[in-house]
């Protein structure tokens, strides 16, 4: 990457990380508060409605957000074309979803779904008007302003309006209104920052390059949506909204922190990968580096969540959510793999290797569908194991794709998981020993959970910074240098970094 691109990427990581930490703290508090104010059925209804809305969202946008970011040369007419298509498609899908809401309620055998879907359908229109400006901000890698907008809109919508409405007895509608309010505030904030033309464009020549890429991206996103939401669809239809609420909250407990950890990387990586899409060797090096660093964080975190699941559920959700504990323990392993393979998908997007990705996702959807059928008799835990096995299959499929696209050997791809797996096993073992001791002693759940957090954090820091695997130490050294932490000063902080880098050079 050029110095300017690297600088933008590092700056994006810094601001994105700050936003991620802030959002993670706020969402944990929000989830805990709402779980105590609302019944599981409310979350189940929102999960059903969200699936329906996501079903339409992939076609309402037609992949134009990715197309604006990925296109090397962007003209004003392309921006107008993207806005026109997003606005009109958003308007169309708002109307279609409003009319089709009763059919969705019949499918899930729940009449309460229809009015919720109709109100949530307004998000199509709001997102259709805002997606162009948000894409332009990401293309320009202006992640500082994106982070500010996200934090402000979240505080007002969820921590403000959402919790207050739930406390006042609005029930499931408190979740709906908070979601729509955040989408509206985001739309206002992004357009106020990027005042692109809103004049409608109808010349096909300017649509063609966007839709050529975007339509395939839309299909891929839809297939990924099917693979991710099969559980929600089947549980909602077969087991009902109560069981779906249990599954949904277990899924969110592990998916949310992992999403917050990786969202910064994914936002920065896609435009960065797109700008060097023709340099296979450089792209391959950055891909391996990204996976090494990500796996070293995600795998230990997810294994730690799996061990601490009983206390995590009781602290954040409450005693009534105990049935979700075994589901959370299995999903923790599956979601770790899901977020790591995300980078292979981003490489395919950046290089426009979309036909292969379409085939891969079709295969994955078929695998997941078959596993859900075979394991359905085991209830919620069976669905969770289906997701885990499916993610293992997806890892193998993506390794073959990266072997072809980036010319990376299978040994190279497997070895980058090693630091994360070793650290993860040691972190999980440490948390397990502490948990067993405190549980057998009858310690209060708050004390046990606090000890689990401290144990996991200390072990991860020690294993990452003091005794890292050789591959991980090399990547950390490079990251510290690129972020400007050279360790050249006289402060204790600089001496620690200098010692860390010197140790790496001796072992190289």
How would you characterize the overall build of this protein?
By secondary structure, this protein is mainly alpha-helical. It has a domain at 38-216. It is built from 20 helices and no strands. The protein has helices at 3-37, 40-61, 64-70, 76-107, 113-120, 122-139, 143-167, 172-193, 204-238, 241-275, 280-307, 309-316, 325-350, 354-374, 379-405, 410-415, 418-440, 445-466, 470-482, 492-507. Helix 9 packs parallel to helix 14. The longest helix is centred in the first third of the chain and has 35 residues, at 3-37.
Question: Brief overview, please?
Answer:
The protein is mainly alpha-helical.
Which structural category do the helix and sheet elements fall into?
mainly alpha
**Integer average pLDDT:** 79
H-E string? HHHHHHHHHHHHHHHHHHHH
Describe the main β-sheet briefly.
Answer: none
Gyration radius, rounded: 23 Å
Beta-strand proportion: under 5%
Distance between the termini: 24 Å
The count of β-strands is 0
Poorly predicted runs: none
Family: Belongs to the polysaccharide synthase family.
GO cellular component, one term: plasma membrane
Membrane topology: Multi-pass membrane protein
Transmembrane segments: 42-60, 81-104, 116-137, 149-170, 176-198, 286-307, 327-347, 354-374, 380-398, 410-433, 445-467
